[in-house]
Amino acid sequence: MEFRRAVPQDATDILSLWNAAEAVHGVTDTIEDIQRMASREGAAFILAVSDGRLAGSIIAAFDGWRGGIYRLAVHPDFRRRGLARALVAEAERMFKQWGVKRVSAIVMKEHPWAMGFWKAAGYTVDDRIVRFIRDFDQ
User: Fold this and answer.
1) How far, in Å, CA of 83 to CA of 97, rounded?
2) Domain containing 51 — which CATH number?
3) pLDDT tens readout for residues 22-36
């Protein structure tokens, strides 16, 4: 398994990965938004590639205050091999290089398998906060 940074040309393959992994669809799941994130400073859009095939993704972003993990996804053909943990470890390695002190991961609470994964990875649920969102019409 090879880990590398995403480039804008990976956008179509990333969308295909997220669809195969049954990731929750969001308003930023577009070619243009993925290309922008792949080009962004202060973020690591990390891909796991096996024999030229996209196996997983994770986004590690740092806003100067806290680190955030987004879009951890593993293709079904590559699950149960430790790839999700390896992707988290790659993101954490980037955070340590950037001097991050706290990391938040956005996790869908109605996905018990995801909740279990993050707990097993050493993360805790912060019951003090709720995430508020607002989508802008384009």
Assistant:
1) 21
2) 3.40.630.30
3) 988 888 889 999 999
Residue 137 forms part of a structural domain:
no
Bridge-based pairing state of the strands 67-74 and 103-105: parallel
Q: Residue 14 is encoded by which pair of tokens?
A: 């990333």
Q: Which two tokens stand for residue 33?
A: 């938004």
Helix (H) or strand (E) holding 93: helix 83-98
Token pair belonging to 17:
């990965």
∠ CA 5-11-14, rounded to 5°: 75
Per-residue pLDDT, averaged over 108-122, amounts to 91
> Phi-psi category of 50—alpha, beta or left, where left has phi over 0 and alpha has psi -120 to 50?
beta
